[in-house]
Amino acid sequence: MVIAVLLGPILAVQAQKWVEVLREDKNRRLYTFKRLMATRGATLSPGHVEALNSIDLEFNGKGKKDEQVRRCWKEYLDHLGNLSQDPEQKQKQVDSWNERMASY
């Protein structure tokens, strides 16, 4: 009985801190998503670039959803870095990417 009386408040505080950490993680991920959606028409805006750069930080868990987000982000980043310098080839790459994005 004495142990329960002493440990009860301590465990309650620890549980509350755990819930707050989970809520904060979820809110940061949601904020990143909202910034990406709000700036999707201005892909070179500082807010959009900052949100893209924060994906690895915010979605760093080991769950399937986090892995999928990081995989898609890596695929998009690879696409951005691998555009051809030849204008004709570059246009084909862009058209192919746009067609692929339309299927999502």
Short note summarizing the structure:
The chain is mainly alpha-helical and 104 residues long. It is built from 5 helices and no strands. The model has no long low-confidence stretch (mean pLDDT 87).
Describe this structure in words.
The chain is mainly alpha-helical and 104 residues long. The chain has helices at residues 2-38, 46-53, 55-58, 64-81, 87-102.
Fold topology:
Layout lengths: L1 H37 L7 H8 L1 H4 L5 H18 L5 H16 L2
Helix pairs in contact: 1-2
Which features does this protein show?
single chain, 104 residues, mainly alpha, elongated
Structural class: mainly alpha
Broad shape: elongated
Strand fraction band?
under 5%
Contiguous runs where pLDDT drops below 50 for at least 5 residues: none
| Biggest pleated-sheet summary | none
Helix content: over 70%
**β-strand number:** 0
Radius of gyration: 21 Å
User: Topology as H/E string?
Assistant: HHHHH
Mean pLDDT equals 87
Number of helical runs?
5
Head-to-tail CA distance between termini: 58 Å
